[in-house]
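Sat 14:20. Reprocessing the chain from the morning session after the first attempt stalled halfway. Input below, unchanged.
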Amino acid sequence: MPPTSSSSPTFARIDLRSLIHNLNQTRRCLVGTCDILAIVKANAYGHGAVPVARALMQANVRRFGVATIDEGAQLRQAGIDHPIVVLGPLVPREIPALVAHRLTPVIYDLNIARDLVKQVPPAAKPYPIHVKIDTGMGRLGLSPDEWPALLETAGLDRQLMLEGLMTHLADADSDDPTYTDRQLEQFHTALGRVASSGHKPPLIHMANSAGIIMYPASHYSLVRPGIMLYGYHTLSRSRPDLDLRPILSWHTTIATIRSIPRGGCVGYNRTFTAARASRIAVLPVGYADGYSRRLSNTGVVLIGGRRMPVVGRVSMDMTMVDVTDLPDVKPGDSAVLLGTQGAAEITAADIAGMLHTIPYEVLCSIGPRVPRFYSGDSEPLAR
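Finished this time. Tokens:
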């Protein structure tokens, strides 16, 4: 049944106890005194950025990463006062909002550094920045050869403070470590050049979730866990002692059950034709909620503790499931799109496999009209 505070038949439940469990699992992977910059961009990968950040704060997480100014502003408006790093690209007109919300930019381009110097008001304390070195991702970042030019940017020392230096792993979830080892070597060389220039940024970070799990040499002083906080990874293998728990389950309710004869069709474009007299459960959820249209005639839903097939096209607001083999199922019964029911389970990784994508996309796609509800107290903290 849905939580009593919502009339919606479709909802997601987020278990904050499992979130903190995953945080503790992350901490157990870390080398030395390495700390955490928790990634809560994209609405905390679909889980709800503000409630997730608040729970992580209570578990002594002191830094957060977002992709955009608006994401950072949302956290500030919710009273989250910890450092927030904006990891995504910036344009000059965003800089006043960045400063107003006390967000830390990632500098990846000499022009952005110059625009920031022009727009940051003079203050007694220089404004903190993180600088990104491109070691092979090929998206954002200064090349190692551009680093000296950044140091020559007028006003850099007076108005800006080099708080952090970072790069991003491109292939850490691959079975072949060659490219990641090359990135590690290039970043180590870049760090040496920074040190020789007389700069000593206190925060050095490289590792995403895959790097945290598989590459201890990438940990430095900070790591940036994202997907592993939410219970998943994209590695073909993992540490045997790592126990990650999905924290989100997605539920709906059977609205009605239709009886169709053998040869009857279901949904747009008649992509499903019944090979027998069938009972079809209609669920009030569709691609407008984030349940992908690509799951048409492919997906499965848990009903009566069993995996039952999606039939016909997933439409904007409705999905149909063949429940012929469950004669006792009736309108009002629960259905699980993602999560467990009895001994059966569907994970975001399962759905990602059906869609030929990754769990990130499945979780981030759950739409805003699906209400989120939060439960669970944290377990004792690790470290």
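The first helix runs from residue 16 to 29.
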